[in-house]
Specification:
Blueprint (H helix, E strand, L loop, with lengths): L1 H26 L12 E12 L2 E13 L4 E14 L2 E17 L2 E17 L5 E19 L2 E8 L13 E8 L1
Keywords: Signal
Protein name: Alpha-ketoglutarate decarboxylase
Organism: Zobellia barbeyronii
Length: 178
């Protein structure tokens, strides 16, 4: 029970930190409202994972606001499918993403994701169990950027192997924004 409360409080704290950080950066932006859409970039990411008995893939279309040359933040939708052993999991949800480029080729990212998991477990005796639940993730990532394209790896700080749709806490990613 205490461990669950600790995880909830840790994820809540990090979510609030990211929101306050994004609001602080937007408050420092001096652009006019007519410039808003000129600073919005559309794109998203693809995720893919393989494990001994499993497969995981995700598609995440998103929109981000480019506050300045180094920092952007936005929202994303996520659609995910995983199959391993005798389990199939489908997921959908959304996330808040923040991207920081301290130097032109390096991107640091933080993404708070909340997914609705629909799981079906199949057994040898032809019986099945369905389980539907919410699963949070907090990804911290590092990637190589070249203009609109980023490739890298991210780590799920809140990873729970019994509940997560992801096969592992580490996940490679590809992001493209226009």
């Amino acid at each position: 029970m205490i461990k669950k409360l600790y995880k909830i409080s840790k994820s809540t704290f990090l979510a609030l930190f990211l929101i306050v950080f994004a609001l602080n950066c937007s408050a420092q932006n001096t652009s006019t409202p007519s410039d808003f859409w000129n600073n919005v970039r559309f794109g998203g990411g693809l995720g893919f994972g393989l494990n001994n008995g499993g497969f995981n893939a995700s598609v995440s279309p998103s929109a981000i606001y480019q506050f300045n040359e180094q920092f952007s933040s936005g929202i994303s939708l996520t659609f995910n499918y995983a199959k391993y052993d005798d389990s199939k999991r489908y997921a959908y949800g959304g996330s808040i993403i923040s991207l920081y480029n301290p130097i032109h080729f390096l991107q640091i990212s933080a993404e708070l994701e909340q997914l609705r998991i629909n799981q079906t477990l199949s057994f040898n005796d032809s019986s099945t169990i369905e389980d539907n639940y919410w699963s949070p993730s907090l990804f911290l990532g590092l990637g190589y950027t070249d203009r609109n394209f980023t490739v890298g790896i991210r780590y799920n700080v809140l990873y729970d192997d019994s509940k997560s749709i992801y096969l592992d806490a580490w996940m490679p990613f590809v992001r493209v924004y226009f």
